[in-house]
Design brief:
Helix content: over 70%
Number of helices: 2
Number of strands: 0
Shape: elongated
Strand content: under 5%
Mean pLDDT: 91
Length: about 60
Amino acid sequence: MDKAALKAEIARRVKLREEANEEMSELARQRDEYLKKNARGGERSFDTKVKATIDAQLR
């Protein structure tokens, strides 16, 4: 592969990586928004159960 073709391939891959990173950032933002909107609180939440289990094991 000559230098010009190599530079073109590198530029293409950099662009693909930037696009993938942008998509991942957008999906992460959407996920966070969804979780915030649909979070269940109270004693039945997963986080509460995990914390209670850890606290019990530490005693």
